[in-house]
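Researcher: Predict the fold of Methoxymalonate biosynthesis protein.
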Amino acid sequence: MTNDQAAHRLTVVGAGVMGTGITTMALGHGVPVLLVDVDRAVLDRARTAISQQLRHAQLMGALPADRAVGELTTSLSVRDAAEATAVVEAITELPEAKAAVLGEVSSVVRPGTPLISNTSGIPIAEMAEWVRRPDELVGTHFMNPPYLITMVEVIQGPRTGAATMAAVTALLAALDRKAVVVRDAPGFVTSRLLHPMINAAARIVGEGTATVEAVDTLMQGCLGHPTGPLRTADLIGIDNLVDSLTVLHKRTGDEACRPCPLLLDKVRAGELGRKSGRGFYDYGKALS
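Model: Structure tokens for Methoxymalonate biosynthesis protein follow.
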């Protein structure tokens, strides 16, 4: 472990798809991680998923060869984050849930500890009302899978302090990530562009204009989208996508962000994408 990695003790709150992916990225770069969730079974599944993702990242050449993997510990209590040098909140995109978690974390960590919300759409200015020291709150939007995608959208809220921005930039540098800083707004840049596009693609399928495969093939071959919007929806998690679109619609009034009927139908049917084994495509079985 280099001095850059030794300086960091990361806590990740939320052991879902993004929380496990962020944990994998940090561990693979030699940073120790405390992973917190309210459900022991979820933590156990996350530990298995992280082991699989570390092997995948190594096979893809996405991890530095000269660093030992960081130590993973798990906990059911946010209070165990007291000694963290930074905390990443990576729970579902529901304002009430994020408010509860960020408020509790803020009361536990030492002053000066960056609180990093991995959010896809809730403005940082809004979340700043939920924490004790708003200058310590900053937004990030890691793309999935975060252990393979090296660019990270970083959202500086109107009350985010310079010390927090410097600390987050240093953490991302230690993780070999490129930070692109943007200003605060609902959906920021990536979600504001990507999520309405996926919604439109699903609407086209729902209206019978084209099949799922046709939409993705055309977007790949004609417009250069690397995977197609509906495969991307399956990777994001269709429930997460609906939550994010709902946040965007409520805060912008943009009808393009109102979740279309097909997305809502899939959530009701439990067809959430790769994590459930079926979404727009069939993956055979749910991912661990």
